[in-house]
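Archive record:
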Amino acid sequence: MMSNNYGDDQLPPQYYQATDFGDEEDDEMPATEKDLAEDAPWKKIQQNTFTRWCNEHLKCVNKTITDLQREFTDGLKLISLLEVLSQKKMYRKYHTRPNFRQMKLENVSVALEFLDREHIKLVSIDSKAIVDGNLKLILGLIWTLILHYSISMPMWDDEDDEETKKLTPKQRLLGWIQNKVPQLPINNFNRDWRDGKALGALVDNCAPGLCPDWAEWDPNKPVQNAREAMQQADDWLGVPQVIAPEEIVDPDVDEHSVMTYLSQFPKAKLKPGAPLKPKQLFPNKAKAYGPGIEPHGNKVLQPAVFTVETLEAGSGEVLVYVEDPEGHKEEAKVKPNKDKNRTYTVTYVPKVEGVHKVKVLFAGQDIDKSPYTVNVAKAMGDPSKVHARGPGLEPTGNVANKPTYFDIYTAGAGNGDVSVVIVDPQGRKDTVELILENKGDSVFRCTYRPMLEGPHTIHVLFAGQEIPKSPFVVNIAEAMNPNACRATGRGLQPKGVRVKEVADFKVFTKGAGSGELNVSVKGPTGAEEQVKVRDAWKRPFEVDVSQEAGFQKVRAWGPGLKTGMVGKSADFVVEAIGTDVGTLGFSIEGPSQARIECDDKGDGSCDVRYWPTEPGDYAVHVICDDEDIKDSPFMAHILPAANDIFPEKVKAYGPGLKPTGVTVNKPTEFTIDARMAGKGQLKIYAQDAEGCTINIKITDKGDGTFLCVYTPVKPIKHTIIITWGEVNVPNSPFRVLVGEGSHPDRVKVYGPGVEKTGLKANEPTYFTVDCSEAGQGDISIGIKCAPGVVGPAEADIDFDIIKNDNDTFTCQEIPISPFKVKVDPSHDAGKVRAEGPGLNKTGVEVGAPTHFTIYTKGAGKAKPEVHFAASGPGEAVRDFEIIDNHDYSYTVKYTALQQGNMAISVTHGGDPIPKSPFHITVAPPLDIGKVKVEGLDNKVEVGKDQEFTVNTKGAGGQGNVGVKMTSPSGRPIPCKLESDKASGTHNVKYIPPEEGQYKVDVSYDGNPVMGSPFGVEAVMPADPSKGAGAGGLGLTVEGPCEAKIECQDNGDGTCSVYYLPTEAGEYAINILFAEQHIPGSPFKAAVRAALDPSKVTASGPGLERAKAGEPATFTVDCTRAGDAELTIEIVSETGVKAEVHIQKTVEGIFSVTYIPSFHGTHTITIKYGGHMIPQFPKVLQVEPSVDTTGVHVYGPGVEPRGVLREVTTHFIVDARALKKVGGNHVKVHIISPSGTNTESYITDKGDGTYRVEYTAFEDGMHLIEVLYD
């Protein structure tokens, strides 16, 4: 007796009649008396099916069975069936001629023991039942074999082994069929197969085209349907008909019989030559849905995803193309989901903003609603691209109740709002008054006045997120109070100090706040004496100064000379400069002793490591021939040990770190994996063998890994040191030997054979290919004649290659016919423009970040490149970055390192753009602390000329001084600024018109100077008539107008006189006492017009029209507006300032000349005395430098009636209105309907006209673009 582990599927067959797999209501219906009868129809069908199944397997050993009940009794055919199914022999011998019952019993026992050893369990079946012909148990045995060998054991396509193990055999087979036939709801193995259509669907899905019209079959003809499907499966899929068509559609058929037949389909293979019929496809029934094709909501660089469903469309390929606003097409990623509805997941990543077209094709045709219009918006700004700098963010140096500021640079960061939150030491956010001002050119200035002393936390946010290094902690010192200072000592006594004696005194600043102490002593002649100021709390240091450093034999560099960490090695590299290294030595001075190791690498360099045990500053001496080398000792700041930084877990790998394989002038890369290394900061030190710093671009991938890219420019050794948390990582330093590489761009081709003219048919010619400067590599040459010259296809031209001894090759060729070759590049650098503050001739200064923008719309696919060349040696810029704005523009950010002239080269696809290289002048770095305001008295007299000086010597920057004065009544006061930039002195003259407190704002390059705004008090002058005795006072005012006079007796022998002139000019003021003029009378008063910017007018042609690159002029009349400074600014829509020259022609009249660099919208701003004049700012459209309205294009090639395909046509470009002679002025671009370029050939006729020929090879609308210069 054997046990059974198969579950319900292995129970004797009679329990399965009329049973469905699923949630049918008649599941587990009890068998009727008719069903249980010996001659029940289902039993006969099952016996026939199982018999045919056995015969299908026994035919390979030339055996058949006609009666299952009788022919298994001797065990021989049962043993043969088992050996065929298992592909194994019986485990013990059996009787080949069993004549006796005992022999038959033993044979059957051998078969049953074999099944037991194969782990096939049987229930209630023993050898006696088989020998006695128990049909019920024999059918149960056959069903067990079918389950094991046809359903359970084989692995089918599209199945997951782990998932399959959890299913019963019945569930497994049904699941495979449901997956294969998603068009029909198949949930059982009897009722759903009765009309024969499911069989047709199964056959056609296994071999598309065998039963393509199964969906149209008549369900009232089930036998005909089943016969058609089963015959095709038998003939071309190798699925034998173990059940008859009449039986499988019989309502009385049992599930086991149907399962036996269907279990053959998973392994079926299509035979060659099958009569597959094309199946009709319905692309319009395919559907697409999902966010990736919605009109709005998709953003630049964010994956756009949608789904395509093809269940009702048939079987075909899905292709998706995405076209950006410039017409560039890319194929989207299409992934089949292999589900019932035949869906596909489509993903694409838009790279620019604007309207995209998504074209969805099924079997090569557009699906319903394709192409879809998708409006891609810019993603929110990137706070990591924003940085802030300025005195208001310095940790120290700011004081309470004094305004300070900082600037926020957002160039290249995209869209987003700037906001600042300042938290005072008490945690409050409302005590600090701040002003956020947009300065233009993507720069914002935050000015704030802290009221409390102590640490303030400044949060700078962009697009709602903190920028790098934010929040900033700024320690506000107590406010300066000079009145709290006191000074005492012999040097301040009125008497007692003698000539040539040291006169000293002390200045006590306790309670006066933070500030700088300045002391000046002037002698009787007005000359300043030398003063020494000494801080009493600092001890003197003795420094032994050696001679100037001479020729150096070695150099030292690396992180260990700057910083390090307790408990970790601090590493640096020493390299030989020449062949003579000398004797090396090392010593470390600092808070602790440090063990030193030196590892000679055998290539003229060595790795040096030392292990500090305490934090602090260490002096690292690198000694060569008993003397410190240049810059030694190096000061290294050693940090305390950290328990959250693990540099030893950093992994660095990639071709850019391998000893060989890197080629000069070719980018290479490597990866740094710091995912397990804790909270450290990545720093890379890199130099070549000549000591030049290697520029390595580091991209943080956001998952703890970094991609590093560099381009070696010299074929020499490069050394790369990688640190994490200021500590060297494993295997660093890396030494990379850069090879010379191959440089195809240095190959030169010249000779008559490559000239545009001069070749004749059937005459030999030649040209030379010079590879002497191109490095290593093989050369290959091919010469072809264009299609249509000697035939419809390209034709090869015979030629010989002769190798010369100097790495040049001479090619001899025989041209078949004169021909022209024109290759349209994928880009046109002539359509690119660059502009912005970083390209202005002035305005860039050392150490100040700046930027400009490159516009590439319409210029084709290529990447821009930027190179900087400074006037001095060393690096020209730092913080250089090109940011793709994803709107056909790029933001270029850099910080200049050298003052003086600098050239900026901008290329697109390797070709220079218009006006490149750009030449700018870099100003020295701005030091606002060196700007001094001198001679500004804090108390002045009303109505008298006043003067003070702004000294900017040594302050660097652009040298622009700004002065703004405000009267007690809030009116602007005109002041005259006379600048001498060479000496750095700027004289300011003004006349206070009223008494009271004035505010004087002084700025330098737009930044407030120290102490600004200054306060000045204006008081009325003293009266000279005091003490004149008794007499009558007479007053008259004579001048251009009658001035009203008011006189007020003050009761103390003085009187106050007021008069109101209404016109400008010279007035005589007569003051008589006892009818006689007092001394000085009559007084002369020059009355100037009051400052009134509303009376300034501007006129001239330069305000109406202008051309790019050409001077434009206009006039500004200030004669009736008073005396003030005139400022004019003309800015393009992209922020580029035009050069403006202002020249005074007569008093109050100014002639203005400017030259706009680019065409497009410009804004003209005119201010007088800091105030905008009427009708300004004004918007002006600058025209292109060439007026092409006089150029005419005509001829058959541009007629609206069209041209013939594959027939050469032409048209004429008549530019004689511009020039009567020829020249390389005309360019033509012809775009075919498919978007490809069509070749055109231009013939210059030399008289200002051009003949253009082209041949159209496609039907449809062609776009012809004609350009002049």
Notes: Residues 41-58 form the longest helix (18 residues). The chain is about 10% helix and 35% strand.
